[in-house]
Specification:
Layout (H helix, E strand, L loop, with lengths): L2 H15 L8 H26 L31 E3 L1 E3 L1 E17 L2 E4 L5 E6 L6 E2 L4 E5 L2 H36 L5 H33 L2 E3 L4 E3 L9 E2 L8 E4 L4 E8 L3 H11 L3 E5 L6 E10 L9 E8 L11 E18 L4 E3 L2 E8 L2 E13 L2 E5 L6 E3 L12 E3 L15
Parallel strand pairs: 1-22
Antiparallel strand pairs: 2-21, 3-12, 3-16, 4-11, 5-7, 5-10, 6-9, 7-8, 9-11, 12-15, 13-14, 13-16, 14-15, 16-20, 17-18, 18-19, 18-21, 19-20
Length: 426
């Protein structure tokens, strides 16, 4: 065998040893895919049927609040030790029955002064924001034109008055002559009518003088009420026209002031009944957020008709406003005291829990929490009137998510952070 043939034989052996493996069949790929899908579905089924229902953190359900003597507070977890809680003591006291409403501060008087005489403003006597009294000078308009017109009217009046006096003297002479048969009756009658005509002329002249005096008084503008002046709207040198609607100055009475608020027509009967008994009801004005009390006043009157579009009626309350805490057109929250409940058992509002239609508290005694159903009444200022417990009883005010009927507790003097879901029974 030649050398060339030997090399060719070796190449065949080498090629046979380095052949690539055959690709897997389609049947093998499908088996692997179905295996993965089966494992995923098995894991999901295990989570839903075993993982969620058999979680080691799941707590056993407690007796509901509706069962028995103030049953438990719902499905709460069993405690492994005493729960720290803060407590409050129920006490006997008075609590008011209030009707809350939205109101607007409305001044008793607001004077928008407009020009009633034409001319040039010569002086402005008030300062912006100044408290002025009734009759104080505010603005002066050049009065010279009106003074001249008044003088003319006074001159005409004086002339016609003397003419009347002369006619009256002639009338007296004619009467004396008629008594002596010195003149005929016609002259006497004519003179009497002349006197009457002159009297009418004098009266007309007097009216002209009075009118011009009023016109002249419009040049001297004074405050018609006592109150606070607004921003200055005109300056000396400005020309104003009589009958213009542009205001020269606005005066607003600040003390006392009123608040107009609305109530639903369903509350009207109660308010009217109490007004007939007491003739007046206390009203409080609070700020926009109902966080600070601004003033105390009394109900002044009830409007004489109901607004049919809203089903509400307007009421007006008056306030002394000595501290000027109420400002015109200010939005306020009003609280109308309708009645006062005396001798009620009061607890903090946060101590009362709810389970559906049932209200209950956790009574604390001898280191144990006991669920006690209560009947709630009115609430005000963070306290609520309840029936079902006695004054002096201690009630829990925190850690409701850790309590159930019979839970052991430890009274904590330090405040305990509120759980976001605390007080809501699942």
């Amino acid at each position: 065998m030649s050398e060339f043939e030997d090399r060719k034989e070796d190449d065949r052996h080498i090629g046979a040893d380095h052949q690539l493996p055959a690709p897997p069949s389609k049947t093998g790929k499908s088996w692997i895919l179905w295996t993965i899908v089966f494992l995923v579905l098995a894991g999901v089924a295990y989570y839903f049927f075993y993982g969620r229902n058999s979680s080691p953190t799941t707590k056993p359900a407690a007796t509901g609040a509706g069962g028995g003597a103030g049953g438990g507070g719902g499905r709460r977890g069993a405690m492994t030790g005493p729960a720290p809680v803060t407590v409050a003591t129920a006490y006997k006291g008075d609590i008011g029955v209030y009707i809350n409403a939205l109101g607007t501060v409305t001044p008793t008087y607001t004077a928008v002064i407009t020009p009633q005489a034409s001319g040039v403003i010569t002086s402005v006597s008030y300062r912006e924001g100044q408290f002025v009294h009734k009759g104080d000078a505010l603005i002066e308009i050049d009065p010279r034109t009106y003074e001249a017109t008044l003088k003319q009217a006074e001159g005409t009046l004086e002339k016609d008055t003397n003419i009347l006096a002369q006619a009256q003297m002639d009338l007296e002479r004619y009467r004396q002559a008629w008594a002596r048969n010195g003149i005929n009756k016609q002259l006497l009658d004519d003179q009497e009518k002349i006197v009457l005509q002159d009297q009418g002329t004098v009266k007309n002249d007097q009216g002209t003088v009075d009118y011009d005096q009023v016109e002249l008084s419009y040049c001297h503008i004074t405050s018609p009420i006592s109150g606070q002046a607004g921003l200055r709207l005109v300056d000396p040198g400005n020309v104003v026209q009589a009958g213009s609607t542009n205001a020269l100055v606005v005066i607003t009475q600040m003390q006392p002031t009123t608040v107009i608020f609305t109530l639903a027509e369903d509350s009207l009967t109660q308010v009217q009944g109490r007004m007939r008994q007491l003739h007046s009801l206390p009203v409080e004005a609070w700020d926009r957020n109902s966080a600070a009390k601004l003033a105390e006043g009394k109900l002044l009157t009830i409007n004489n008709q109901i607004d049919t579009t809203t089903g509400t009626v307007k009421l007006r309350a008056t306030f002394d406003n000595k501290t000027s805490s109420l400002f015109p057109n200010q939005f306020v929250n009003t609280r109308l005291l309708l009645n006062t409940i005396s001798g009620a058992t009061l607890v903090p509002t946060g101590a009362v829990q709810h389970n559906g239609q049932v209200s209950f508290v956790y009574l604390i005694a001898n280191g144990v929490a006991k669920v006690q159903n209560v009947k709630t009444s009115v609430s005000d200022g963070g306290v609520i009137a309840v029936q079902g417990i006695n004054p002096g009883d201690q009630v829990a005010t925190s850690s409701f998510d850790k309590l159930q009927n019979g839970s052991k507790i430890i009274i904590s003097k330090a405040p305990i952070a509120t759980n976001p879901t605390e007080g809501n029974t699942p």
